[in-house]
């Protein structure tokens, strides 16, 4: 047990570096506390400043993480998140979830356009999963789900429907995914989470090998 005085985020980041920690875990005393912790300056600075993944425990544990959903945009950050999660939890079922808005979706009734979208989605999924860094074992326990609509709402609905134990987001510490997490829409998502939340910071040139 280590007790230090100073800025909580800075001290925790320094400690994680000094002790070469593989994971930072934060607890929660209640929904209001979780909301303040995630969207307050402390956790914001930790996620932006730490290279170690940050696990925010929302619920009292009753079992291992059996079903894990990973928000993906099929980038290197998403691939690194998949590798890290697969290494942390070698027996869990994994779902890569991608949601995206289609401009003027309400006006699209052309079956050819819908078929073309599905074809593009399949191509992107196949290319991503064909990466040599994804082992056969990980491929065998990873499903891919792509939906049309508001990404945060779709992800929240998917988590509720499947009672996912853990939600994972791969982040550059900047950019669209991180901003979506910290944004007001994602605040509602986090508040309704039934399971825990893991944020994995993307480190350029690094491959998960734990």
From TrEMBL:
Residues 2-58, 65-201 form the UspA domain. Pfam families: Usp. CDD domains: USP-like. Belongs to the universal stress protein A family. This is Universal stress protein.
């Amino acid at each position: 047990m280590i007790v230090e005085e100073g800025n909580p985020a800075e001290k925790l980041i320094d400690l994680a570096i000094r002790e070469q920690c593989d994971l930072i875990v934060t607890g929660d005393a209640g929904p209001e506390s979780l909301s303040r912790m995630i969207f307050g300056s402390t956790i914001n600075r930790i996620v932006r400043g730490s290279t170690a993944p940050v696990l925010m425990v929302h619920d009292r544990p009753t079992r291992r993480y059996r079903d894990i959903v990973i928000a993906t945009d099929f980038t290197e950050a998403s691939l690194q998140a998949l590798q890290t999660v697969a290494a942390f939890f070698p027996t869990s079922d994994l779902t890569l979830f991608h949601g995206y808005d289609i401009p003027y979706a309400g006006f699209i009734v052309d079956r050819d356009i819908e078929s073309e979208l599905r074809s593009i989605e399949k191509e992107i999924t196949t290319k991503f999963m064909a990466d040599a860094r994804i082992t056969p074992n990980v491929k065998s326990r990873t499903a891919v789900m792509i939906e049309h609509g508001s990404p945060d709402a779709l992800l929240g609905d998917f988590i509720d429907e499947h009672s996912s134990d853990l939600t994972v987001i791969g982040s550059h510490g900047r950019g669209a995914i991180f901003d979506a997490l910290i944004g007001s829409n994602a605040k509602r998502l986090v508040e309704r989470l039934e399971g825990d939340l893991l944020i994995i910071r993307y480190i350029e040139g690094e491959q998960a090998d734990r």
